[in-house]
Design goal:
Layout (H helix, E strand, L loop, with lengths): L2 H10 L31 E6 L6 H17 L5 E6 L4 H13 L4 E4 L8 H9 L3 E5 L9 E5 L1 H16 L7 E6 L5 H14 L4 E7 L5 H15 L4 E6 L2 H13 L13 H9 L5 E3 L2 H16 L10 E3 L7 E6 L2 E3 L5 H5 L6 H4 L5 H6 L4
Length: about 375
């Protein structure tokens, strides 16, 4: 694992997980694991991530989760890993494989939160408890960790309004939401609308298939054609990958307007440095990964989640799920030093390569 990931783990994991977030839906319930028998450190953990187009999963989430599991089990745990590459059917097959391999617990980041419901049920029926990671999968999950996703959308919307200033009145924006198969996308959208509605007109809005930048690019081109290039004052983009496709379309049309993002991807941070992208949402992956690992190990060992998960979240098929919700930060050119650089996500040298050096110098990144 590369140096940055180690630095994140060392810094951010020191934050108390118990204090993170606030309950979406409070209620009763028992945080005790339903595991039938206590186990030692010699456990088998399945880890299923949804895709590899977004840089975070392979670069941060996977190594951080694996490192924390090893740390918690004195390096004795066996970790079985697979990435679904945005294919819900493939992920269902991967769950079947985990069941066949008799993992003790499964950490699952669903490609399609609803489609995976039957697979979650199959795992639970086989005696395997499931930790929903980053996305709230349907089915009888035992634990969940993510960020406060409604707050992510609010943070994006507030930043966009700040960037627009007086242009928000009488102007119109384009909203580029994430995939309808991702429950987080709906929460980002909810949070953004709660801030933007009544403050600026939404001229066009899209749910972007599979979060793909090329689909966002096509949608943006369609929006420009429908609205006119002089009628768009800003763009809400749910993440950095899509922001890249959106900005390419805007550039081709000769449009310069504020664009939001999420995930603090390197390319997104570099666009923020140059002013092409206004902001991103910085989500510290280390506490999220640590929470998933801690809950998974506890469940595999038959231990309580009381000291780990202080929040409760409900889905359409599970109520009062023990959860850890991690807060987020609006990342702009003004706080790059205090966020992704301070936490060791990137070094100045990684951000300020070649064509970015002069722009970096102007905002104090040296």
């Amino acid at each position: 694992m590369r140096r940055a990931a180690v630095a994140i783990a060392a810094g951010a994991m020191a934050v108390s997980l118990a204090a993170c977030g606030s309950a979406e839906e409070a209620g009763g319930g028992d945080n005790d694991s339903t595991g039938s028998a206590a186990k030692g450190d010699d456990i088998k953990v399945g880890l299923l991530l949804p895709e590899n187009q977004t840089a975070r999963y392979e670069k941060f989430d996977r190594p951080l989760i694996e490192q924390k599991i090893k740390e918690l089990t004195n390096n004795k745990a066996e970790i079985q890993y697979n990435n679904a590459k945005q294919d819900a059917n493939l992920q269902a097959q991967q769950v079947d494989t985990m069941i066949t391999n008799k993992v003790d617990v499964l950490i699952l980041d669903a490609v399609d939160a609803k489609a995976i419901k039957n697979s979650v049920q199959k795992a639970v029926d086989a005696g395997i408890e499931v930790v929903a990671y980053d996305r709230l999968a349907e089915g009888p999950i035992s634990a969940y960790t993510s960020f406060d996703n409604v707050q992510v959308g609010k943070t994006q919307g507030e930043a966009l309004l700040e960037a627009l200033g007086d242009k928000a009145k009488g102007g119109q924006i384009v909203m580029m939401n994430g995939s309808v198969t991702d429950p987080n996308a709906a929460q980002f959208k909810e949070g953004a609308h709660s801030v933007l509605d009544g403050k600026v007109k939404v001229g066009k809005e899209y749910d972007t298939k599979e979060w793909k930048p090329e689909n966002a690019n096509s949608n943006m081109e369609a929006a420009i054609s429908a609205l006119g290039k002089n009628k768009i004052v800003g763009v809400y983009s749910a993440n950095d990958g899509m922001a890249g496709g959106i900005i390419t379309a805007l550039k081709s049309a000769g449009i310069e307007v504020p664009v939001t993002g999420q995930d603090a991807e390197l390319a997104g941070v570099q666009r923020i440095v140059t002013g092409e992208q206004y902001m991103s949402v910085y989500k510290p992956y280390a506490p999220e990964a640590a929470a998933a690992a801690e809950m998974a190990v506890a469940l595999a060992k038959g231990e309580s989640l009381d000291s780990i998960a202080k929040d409760k979240v409900s889905s359409g098929s599970a109520k009062d799920v023990p959860s850890v919700l991690v807060p987020v930060t609006s990342l702009t050119k003004d706080n790059i030093n205090d966020t992704v650089i301070k936490d060791g996500v990137y070094t100045v040298d990684e951000i300020c390569t070649g064509k970015y050096k002069s722009a970096c110098a102007k905002i104090g990144l040296k």
